[in-house]
């Protein structure tokens, strides 16, 4: 009985956590052009801030992702 309760509780907590993360997800920049390498981090962040986002970062796939979408 305790194991079932722990499984249900962990599932509910995971749904709450994932729901909270979804509201602050990253989105692809609409204005950034070209590849986004580590040395382009400031350019990506500045463009994302001009788009009204909180910040931005370059991904391993060389794309500029804005934070706070």
TrEMBL record:
Residues 24-69 form the Knottins-like domain. Gene3D superfamilies: Knottin, scorpion toxin-like (3.30.30.10). Its main location: secreted. Keywords: Disulfide bond, Secreted, Signal. Pfam families: Gamma-thionin. The keyword Secreted applies. GO terms for biological process: response to other organism. It is found in: Secreted. This is Drosomycin. It comes from Drosophila mauritiana (Fruit fly). The gene is LOC117141144.
